[in-house]
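Backbone-to-sequence.
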């Protein structure tokens, strides 16, 4: 029997210093899925890796063996000296896995309630698993269900109106620390999706405060600037990436939103350009893994924040959050019931089909025998015999079919289905062969 599991780490149980060590870059997810396919107990798998979580969803033939396989997988992908001490600390089984993924896709399990990017990340996890053929019928269904649930939550509740991203939360944190950003000078390091969102928010502030955009690849900045942007004149660009420390030293706010493998903002380099009288500044690193030197916080006049500090944003407007969660949870549980209906159908439909095929084969065999014994029978008599025998089959199958479909308890349903298979000696391959043979015999 197969089991649905999820194992990994997320922000509920692990700080960013641990999460960043488990993070799997987008470019490596395909290779990671191929690695998971080689473990003996894992039959299906998908990987969801974001700044808040790295989770492996899997269908396994043995729970204990499957969990051990995932632990071994995480140990193999970590390139840190203490990887033996780092293990997944978040594990769920069966129904809890489905509920968790529904809540994740709906933005209910994000550090920032309603965080907007998670839907795209869940969709990418599903697509990657499909492309690598690690996603079977079970994971395919629950990921599609989760995406549908997330869409409904955002369109049918006030979650969509409030939806935010990590990037916008970083700007909210900056407002809390610095007040109005209209006249503040800002440096954004990184022109990926998160960096671009930060720039758009900063431009919408108005005022004359410059927004300096720095990225390794200048072409990405040029492509971004082709978009229709409010207050585009505030953006300052064209700098070499090597100038980032000098530029950052002069800013009130520095946002680091890069996907580098190493630190892009170092304390000793920044200190070279900071001098007495330099403005106090806030540096917000929303990269996971973190791309800033922890020693930056020791520099005079520098305050360093990272992804976990965005929890301050989460705690605001508690009453509003509770109302939104209540609306969204109703939709989550409607979709959860859809999962149970699908799960029951996976057991009921094949069993009923096998039973119908077997009884249909018996019916056709008996008609063929009757035909052989009395070739003189008129065509009308044969048609009547067909109708009567088909009606008998339908009556025989009616009660078992209704009973199976009406059973809600999955364990009882399994027992009923198994009892039918045993009592009627059901075998899908044998049943199909017998039915085809009976049909050919009748046509002969």
């Amino acid at each position: 029997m197969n089991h649905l599991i999820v194992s990994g780490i997320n922000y509920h149980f692990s700080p960013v210093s641990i999460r960043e060590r488990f993070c799997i870059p987008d470019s490596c997810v395909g290779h990671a899925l191929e690695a998971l396919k080689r473990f003996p107990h894992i039959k299906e798998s998908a990987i969801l890796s974001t700044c808040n979580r790295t989770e492996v969803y899997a269908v396994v033939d043995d729970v204990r063996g499957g969990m051990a396989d995932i632990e071994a997988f995480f140990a193999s992908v970590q390139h840190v000296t203490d990887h033996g001490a780092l293990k997944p600390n978040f594990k769920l089984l069966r129904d809890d896995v489905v509920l968790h993924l529904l809540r994740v896709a709906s933005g209910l399990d994000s550090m920032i309630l309603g965080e907007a990017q998670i839907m795209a990340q869940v969709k990418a996890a599903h697509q990657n698993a499909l492309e690598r053929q690690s996603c079977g019928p079970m994971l395919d269904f629950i990921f599609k269900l989760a995406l549908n649930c997330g869409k409904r939550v955002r369109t049918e509740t006030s979650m969509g109106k409030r939806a935010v991203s990590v990037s916008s939360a970083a700007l909210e944190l900056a407002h809390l620390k610095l007040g109005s950003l209209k006249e503040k000078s800002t440096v954004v390091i990184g022109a990926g999706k998160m960096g671009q969102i930060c720039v758009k928010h900063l431009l919408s502030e108005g005022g004359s405060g410059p927004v300096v955009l720095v990225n390794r690849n200048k072409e990405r900045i040029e492509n971004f600037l082709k978009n229709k942007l409010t207050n585009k004149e505030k953006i300052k660009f064209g700098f070499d990436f090597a100038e980032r420390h000098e530029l950052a030293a002069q800013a009130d706010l520095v946002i680091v939103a890069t996907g580098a493998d190493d630190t892009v903002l170092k304390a000793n380099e920044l200190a070279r350009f900071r001098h007495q009288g330099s403005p106090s500044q806030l540096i917000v690193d929303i990269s996971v893994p973190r791309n800033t030197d922890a020693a930056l916080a020791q520099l005079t006049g520098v305050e360093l924040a990272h992804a976990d500090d965005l929890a301050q944003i989460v705690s605001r407007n508690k009453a509003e959050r509770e109302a939104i969660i209540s609306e969204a949870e109703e939709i989550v549980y409607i979709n959860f019931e859809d999962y149970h209906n699908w799960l029951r159908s996976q057991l009921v439909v094949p069993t009923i089909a096998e039973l119908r095929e077997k009884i249909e084969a018996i019916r056709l065999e008996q008609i063929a025998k009757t035909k052989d014994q009395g070739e003189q029978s008129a065509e009308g008599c044969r048609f009547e015999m067909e109708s009567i025998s088909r009606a008998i089959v339908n009556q025989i199958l009616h009660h078992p079919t209704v009973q199976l479909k009406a059973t809600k308890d999955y364990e009882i349903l399994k027992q009923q289905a198994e009892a039918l298979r045993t009592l009627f000696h059901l075998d899908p391959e044998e049943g199909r062969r017998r039915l085809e043979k009976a049909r050919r015999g009748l046509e002969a």
